[in-house]
Every structure is written in C-alpha cells, then in structure tokens.
Amino acid sequence: MQDKESAPSKPSVIRPLVFLALLGAIILTVRYFQLDQYLEKERLRQAVAGYGTWGPVIYTLIWVAAPPLFLPGLPIGLAGGILFGPFWGVVYTIFGATIGATLAFLVARYLARDWVAAKLSGTKLSTLDEKVGQHGWKIVALTRLVPLFPYNLLNYAFGLTRISLLAYAVSTFIFMLPMTIAIIYFSANLLDLVRGKLTWGVAVGIILVALVGLIPFFYKKLRAKREMLSLDD
Questions:
Q1: What pLDDT is recorded for position 102?
Q2: Domain definitions of the chain by residue range
C-alpha cells in the first residue's frame, strides 16, 4: 500500500498477480534449462546443515537486520523455508523478524524520532499514536494480521507511539505467526512446485498462503458492515 492518505487499493490485487507471474516464469525457466538437479531441497538443506550452527545464526541475523535496513522480507522468508524446512524455518524466522522489528522500534523511540516523524508526515501512519492510545496492543495485532501498511516503516512508526516495548514485542511475535507459518510452509515445498511436482505439501502451502492473504479482504468486509450498522443506529 502506498504511503499517502489517498493510496488506492489496487496494489492488494496486483501483488499476488505479480508473484504468480514471477513464479510461473521461474518454473518455465527451470524446466526449459533443465535445472531440476540443482533444486533438490534435501540436498540444499544438507549443505546448510554442514555449516552447523552458523547457518541458523546467519539467517536469523539477516532477519534481525532486515527491518531496520528496510530489506524486503519475502525473499528472506522464502529462503528460510527452503533451507531449514517448515518447522525450523518458522522458528528462526519468527524470532529473527521479531527481534528486527523490535530493534527498529527502539531506534525510532530513542535515536531517530525526528527522522521517523518526517517519514510519517502526511501518511496514514501519522495517526497511529492516537489509535494506539485508544486500542493499545490491539492495533499492533491488527497491523500484523492485516498487512495494510509497509511492514518496515510500520516498525519505526510504533516506536513513536505510547505502547510499551513489552506489549509491542509480544504482540508482534504472536500475530506475525500466521503469516510466517503460511509463507514458510509454502516455501518449504516451493522447490517441488518449481520442479513441476504438485505434492500434498505444495497444495497445503498454497491453501495456507491463500487463507492468510484473504484476511485483509474479510477485514475490509467486516469493517464496512460495522460502519453500515453504526449509520443505521
């Protein structure tokens, strides 16, 4: 979603289409150049396991650095599922992403308030403190479950609000889990799909991503219904 108040809702439709187009292009490329042998997930996971604890440590540190440095999270998450599998991929991702989000929060609160305030000026996020004052941690939960705002900028924005560090960190951890589980489980089976194999793991991963992706749609429907009921009253 765009930063400006008048941002349209089209990107919510365009992004999944772009992702599907890219995925289709990757599958066609792999099949055309016969790259299947280099994309065996077990071989890749064994190679990463050969580095011992350094593999998980480096991956987690990348996630810690991603939110403060505005690095895109989706490619990192996809790599986590591919390299570490559905269980450990979720573990390393959720802890790394939560620590990174908390680090950005602390930078905004104690080191770069003016810079963050300037970034938020004129956007919907400029009213975040008022909403946090009314609803507390529920606003963190909502923005994690319904990704209507830029994730990395949102982490900084919460640092300017009155929410406590503990409430922010716990809410971020808990309510990022659904999206994290869906993305990691999907990516853990992504190489099967890229190699042209439609397994049960691939099917379940697609369903999970679709269900989580529908949360903003149902949220908007519920919100519109509540507004209509309030007008009737």
A1: 97
A2: 11-232
* Alpha-carbon distances of 26 from 20, 170, 187, rounded to whole Å: 10, 37, 14
Provide CB contacts within 8 A for 57, sequence distance 6+. none
Q: Which residue has the tokens 């990395």?
A: 152
Compute the residue count for the chain.
233
Tell me how far apart the alpha carbons of residues 98 and 19 are, in angstroms, rounded to a whole number.
25
Is pLDDT of 210 > 60?
yes
Cα-Cα-Cα-Cα dihedral sign, residues 112, 118, 167, 103: negative
Whether pTM exceeds 0.90: no
Q: Are 122 and 5 in contact (CB under 8 A)?
A: yes
Residue 149 DSSP code: S
Closest-CA residue to 105 (of 173, 57, 176, 164) = 164
Number of neighbours of residue 141 by Cβ within 10 angstroms: 16
* Rounded-to-integer distance, Cα 24 and Cα 43, Å: 23
DSSP secondary structure letter of residue 25? H
User: If pLDDT is split at 50, 70 and 90, which confidence band does 168 have?
Assistant: very high
Here the tokens at position 137 are 């941690």
Single-letter code of the amino acid located at 92: Y
H helices present in the chain, as ranges = 11-33, 41-49, 54-65, 73-110, 113-120, 128-135, 137-145, 151-158, 165-188, 190-194, 200-213, 215-232
